[in-house]
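Q: Convert this sequence to structure tokens.
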Amino acid sequence: MGSRHTQAWRVTLPPPRPMVDTVTRPSTRATGVDYDVVVVGSRVAGAPTALLLARRGLRVLLVDRVALPRDTVSSHQVQVPGAAALARWGLLDEVRAGGHPGVDTARVTVDGATLTGTFPVVDGVGTLISPRRTRLDHLLVRAAQAAGADLADDVTVDGLIVNDDVDGGRVSGIRGRTRSGGRFQATAELVVGADGKNSRVAQLVGAAMPRQRPGTTVALYGYWSGVPLDHAELHHGRGFAAAAFPTDDCLTVLFAAVPLSMLPQVQADSEEVLLGVLDRCSDLGERARSGRRVERVRATPDVPNAVRAAHGPGWALVGDAGLVLDPVTAQGISNAFLGAELLAVAVGSALDAGEPLDSRLGDYVRARDDALGGMFDVTVGLAQLKPSRVATAMVRQAARTQAQSDRFLAFFSGALPARQYLSPGSVASLLGWRGALSLLRGGRQRGELAGALPSAP
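A:
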């Protein structure tokens, strides 16, 4: 690949409105409803969805049980396609103003094989960013409000309004309670669940889960000062994964994943477990120990892999509510942004055609699943924390040329679909047909292909 420029996420969106304090809100399309769309969950899936739909002229209500800014457990990384989405929305410069401009190179080590590559350029953006969620989420909510969305940030949704006489039960709004204990309800033509991997909306509609794999890791991370980084760093070895990225306020995010069996050790001393993993990553542990931890280490074993059915009569799911992956591949925020864009396109096309807002949600889900492109299987494989011989050989071979190193980062950032990068022909072009066949045969015999080659869709 001789150029950094990569095509990804080709969606058509209206130009962003200027961020202003007030916007004249249009009346709802349908009579007898409070809003055109109610979005439940106001973080990296919900706020962009509300933003984009409000820019289409729809009246949108954004609902959350907590008021932002407020922190949440996160992988932090906004892959290059996600950063390009922020640029399309007119928000990237404000996100970057938090204290770091992002990184355009990364060093990747897989079981001793190391490459250093440059991230691809997508729609004019070629950097990975890792903003603090306290800033990113709040910024997105403010942008949604500036576009015209209303915000109710003290409402816990505990029920849906369902019209049983239409389509066997059409969702037509939400019910909930406020922090003060009062009851709340809002009716809408479309309800979007953007309320995370444990989505209440998904539970209430009984969304099926056609693909799922249980979590196999514990994810933990912390913020350090005084940890020098020449590149972003990714490490994957037997029994661990680790990463280091710059974040806001000139700090560094240090991340590790360990087997679920180590949960008792993590609960006893999460910082020592994190530093112990970093000690296995070249000199990263030494650099971390020479720096200073500025906040407590956060850890979670709640890292499932699941794809839900993401639409039905009057409802849709976006972000982790519809598709969640182990953070070992750090695709969550970018997937949420992509989902918001694809959902906005589907709703917008229905709006333009004068059809019900949910009439083209099948197009949204098909586009979402196509964009996933093998990353589900790659993530499940990498979360086993057992690098395959195929993956190690591919990294070692890719390290021989800058073009192949860059192509690997295009794949890992989500700009180049995993299904394409890991196709038999692509693997053979990197390893040679004889080497590829030898490794593939041996890998099948030893069950080592997980995390190297995605299964067929």
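The first helix runs from residue 46 to 55.
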